[in-house]
User: What shape does this take?
Amino acid sequence: MAKTILAVDDEPDVLLIVKTALESEGYQVVTASNGPDALALAVEMTPDLILLDVMMPGMSGFEVLRNLKAGDATGTIPVIMLTGVSERSMIQEALSSGTDYYIVKPFEFHDLLGKVNDALVGTP
Assistant: This one.
């Protein structure tokens, strides 16, 4: 059965690129464009992996990450932050908050795919 990935980004173009590319690799991809929707979907479907943007209106990726890691149903889901923010302090905050990988946009798809595969190793 295909692994399910929840991709969260407020930029529709980024979501389309990520969704299309990952689906071509055999993954099932569900998308959300904001934090509250992402949290609701994560609880409802418990995806195998979450790709999470940092800068979003209303609720930042860090807030979403903290909520995910605090949840019983979502606390163990691997999270990859996918963002245009490359400041060292933000990367450190993401890693200390429980993200598995931090990828800076623009990114090469093979780099993303490698991190996705690495994050999914160890999930049944």
In short: The chain has a mean pLDDT of 92.
